[in-house]
Design brief:
With 230 residues, the protein is of the alpha/beta class. It has a single domain (4-218), classed as Alpha/Beta hydrolase fold, catalytic domain (Rossmann fold, 3-Layer(aba) Sandwich), CATH 3.40.50.1820. The chain has six helices and eight strands; from the N terminus they run βββαβααβαββαβα. It has an eight-stranded mixed β-sheet, sandwiched between helices. β5 (109-114), α4 (116-127) and β6 form a beta-alpha-beta unit. The longest helix has 18 residues, at 201-218. It is globular and about 40 Å long.
Length: 230
């Protein structure tokens, strides 16, 4: 049985967003990607992580959070990439859509956010506590979620490169504010910079993210769970 792969146009929060949806056979969970500054569904880093999640039996949704017109404007003005309110509304709407998309209906949902998309994912998790079950941030800016950090209840993994010192400090501070979360962890990839271009760094990100989602979306009691560590 082959994976179900669709290039979809999803209506979310009143706009049409382009998305790549991959549903492996017998998928047991789904991860929605919230892309970062100036990025979208074609990001090679997020597509690599998505492929590893698919191999672990997780469906993935990589959606552009901006419309083509918004992307063109953002490329010139950077107007939208830091609009966490706008981005988080769309991430939450995508989570709502996923619950009703038949190939993924009934699956537990996780959010994977990168850069500013991590803040949007955390805000969406805060406002969808019964829909979203886990969050992973890669090189994220959780600080941009502001007061919503204190409302996040889902298990959250913050992955940061060890050489990305400014973002590492922001993540450490944000984690201290997430007092309501069921579990928070800060994972540091030694020697990695912001985009994890160093040999083996992105592979480590993928292993950490896959292990987190397998654990929190599929459950420790699932006989197929393999806990992955860096």
């Amino acid at each position: 049985m082959t994976s179900l792969q669709n290039d979809l146009t999803i209506t979310a929060a009143g706009v049409e967003l382009q998305a790549d949806v991959q549903v492996p056979p017998s998928a047991r969970g789904v991860v929605l990607f919230a892309h970062g500054s100036g990025s979208g569904r074609h990001s090679p880093r997020n597509r690599y992580v998505a492929d590893q999640l698919n191999r672990a039996g997780l469906a993935t949704v990589l959606a552009d959070l901006l419309t083509p017109a918004e992307e063109r404007a953002d490329a010139v003005t950077s107007r939208y990439r830091f609009d966490i309110g706008l981005l988080s509304v769309r991430v939450a709407a995508l989570a709502d859509w996923a619950t009703g998309y038949e190939p993924m209906a009934g699956l537990r949902i996780g959010l994977f956010g990168a850069s500013t998309g991590a803040a949007a994912a955390l805000v969406a998790a805060a406002v969808r506590p019964s829909t979203v079950h886990a969050v992973v941030s890669r090189g994220g800016r959780p600080d941009l979620a502001g007061d919503y950090l204190q409302r996040v209840r889902q298990p959250t993994l913050l992955i940061v490169g060890g050489a990305d010192r400014t973002v590492l400090a922001l993540n450490s501070d944000a984690m201290r504010k997430m007092t309501a979360a069921a579990e928070t962890q800060l994972a540091i990839v030694p020697g990695a910079s912001h985009l994890f271009p160093e040999p083996g760094a992105l592979e480590q990100v993928a292993r950490l993210a896959t292990g987190w989602f397998v654990r929190h979306l599929l459950g420790d009691n699932d006989p197929q769970v393999v806990r992955l560590t860096p």
